[in-house]
Amino acid sequence: MMRWAALAPLLVFVWGVVQAAPDRPPVDLAALQARAAEQNLAASAQWQALVHYERDWLGEGLHSTVVTDWFFLSPNGRRDPAAELNATLAAFVENRYIEDRERSAACTFIARRRFLVARLGLEEHALGGERCEKYQRWREALAPRQISLIFPTAFPNSPSSMFGHTLLRIDSSRRARNTELLSYAVNFAAAAGDDAQGLGFAWKGLTGGYAGIFGLFPYYEKVKQYAWIEHRDVWAYPLELSDAETDRLVDHLWEMDGVRFAYFFLTKNCSYQLLSLLEVARPELALTEQYSWYAIPADTIRTIADVPGLMGAPRFRPSLETTLRWQADQLSAEQRTLAREIAADRVAFDDSRLTGLSPDAQAEVLEVAHDYLYYRLQSDPANAPADTEHANAILMARSRIARPSSFAPVPAPATSPDQAHRTLRVATAAIYEGDDLSLGLRIRPAYHDLLDDPGGYTRGAQINFLDLGLRVDPGEGELRIDDLTVLNIVSLSPRNDLFKPVSFQLDTGLRRRPSANVFDDVDNNLGYYLQGGPGLSWGSDDALAYVFGLGSIDANSALSPGYALGAGASAGLLLHPARWLQLKAETGALEYVAGDDGYYRWAKLGQQFNLTRDLGLRSELGWENTAVDSGLRATIGLQAYF
């Protein structure tokens, strides 16, 4: 009796194995591999999308962007699609167990298996997969009905999101109307952990110091992160995928669980990898081939929009800050002050300043007070004017006013991101300076400046990356580098009664002025500079005034002792008087206080007239004054966006 009791666990284990691997007709592996080779399945777009192959930089071979070892069933699978396909067939036929996933190959690589079954004309479970209970439960929880592309707009204060972000949303077939917050989000991001901040994070992101991973989250968590905490407006684009394409994409997401990719902030980023998912759904799209050097979210959205019938009309979700600004603008100055004091628990709910208002006005003040307090609790909890308990008390006071909100919904911007200008800009201009006329050429890979057409971009935000200026003197025929902006960021965040943000600017690269001629009458050498500082801005989307404090470092061989440190300030005005016109006026001064001495003062007036979405006429008139010279500089030319 005791012997049978000791054998009982073994019998249970054997019975489980028998149940997990039901009898199937024997499969001729060699015949299947030969049939796959005959059809050249390893070279098919769908197989290469499933294993994430891309061409080597020199175009001589292929490699997968996946860096996780267990993802490849062949030792040579990372670079050999045919070897990986044959090894995958063998793993299915032999019912191989993937230890890292704690399940069989057939239940790990669902999309691969279904692709091979369909292309080889096999029965549904000829290659296994009869009992993939974990997958079935996961799939039933998702209940996918539709895929949407989600675009949280740019967030200049974060290096990882300064160009915006893209993710996918899986809408459930069980979801009721207008309940997309209960959907799931597919996000790709660097696996940075607590290291995701500062210059170290930016450097590692640029140089491949992190791996990238896909994650599946409740959609409301991502909305809270982007729209409520980071205060970024969110656009949603439904994708017109067939049921089969949606199933294929979702099956592949199951395969991506725990898979790591090579991650680079400018190339193999969120937008690139989401394009790769869409290629799994519809391989003939070949979307990633267009992004060998860099992939900017705004550009990838327009690439998808260019595919006829793939992208539906967008839906706009304003951030908490956008909503609060919209509502606060509808109050009087006295009512905004009252709302702020209620949020800070300095005014009681029975105070005559509140009760003396009409019921509609009381409701509006209480709604703004609550949203303002909630905004501060989300974005700056340490300095919030009150706590969550008081926020709930404001809600209770509002609920006692039996009237619906009188605030109209926040209107969507006139231009959605898919209709905005492209980010690669090429410009030609005539330049008049110092009684000389020359030809200028500028090439900017990314992204947007304050004189570009603002439609579809974050108002008051400027990011120029690797903006190269060249000049040719027609008389001498000499081509020279005028300047190279490695990175230029300007963030103008307007202040009002409720919001007190600090604006900032950062500018670094190579330039000729004020590095040399500012100080001495010597050759106008090209030198390195770093300039920037905090600032304040006021106004609206159509008119922004700003001031900045500036610090400057110049390093140049023409300087004595080779560098100069400066400090100063600038002020300006940015206007959008019409949909087709942008104006910018700025003045400023820098005094050089260490190293070589001197000063640099300037005043500039610029405008751009938008001829089309991707073509503009730009001119600038500027006055510059240095320790040794002063003069005018005028430019006029065309800006083309690609």
Structure commentary:
The protein is globular. The protein starts with a helix and ends with a strand. Mean pLDDT is 89; it is low at 1-21 and 515-520. Helix content is 29%, strand content 32%. The protein is an alpha+beta fold. It has a twelve-stranded antiparallel β-barrel with strand order 12-13-15-16-18-19-20-21-22-23-24-25.
Q: Strands, helices and their partners?
A:
Layout: H1 2-20, H2 29-38, H3 45-50, E1 53-55, E2 62-64, H4 81-93, E3 97-98, E4 103-104, H5 105-108, H6 110-119, H7 133-142, E5 144-152, E6 167-172, E7 184-190, H8 198-207, E8 211-218, H9 219-229, E9 234-239, H10 243-255, E10 260-262, H11 270-281, H12 297-305, E11 315-317, H13 320-328, H14 333-343, H15 352-355, H16 359-379, H17 388-399, E12 425-433, E13 436-444, E14 446-448, E15 461-472, E16 479-491, E17 494-495, E18 503-511, E19 527-539, E20 543-555, E21 563-578, E22 581-595, E23 598-612, E24 615-626, E25 630-641
Parallel strand pairs: 17-19
Antiparallel strand pairs: 1-2, 3-4, 5-6, 5-9, 6-7, 7-8, 8-10, 9-11, 12-13, 12-25, 13-15, 14-15, 15-16, 16-18, 18-19, 19-20, 20-21, 21-22, 22-23, 23-24, 24-25
Helix pairs in contact: 2-4, 10-11, 13-16, 14-16, 16-17
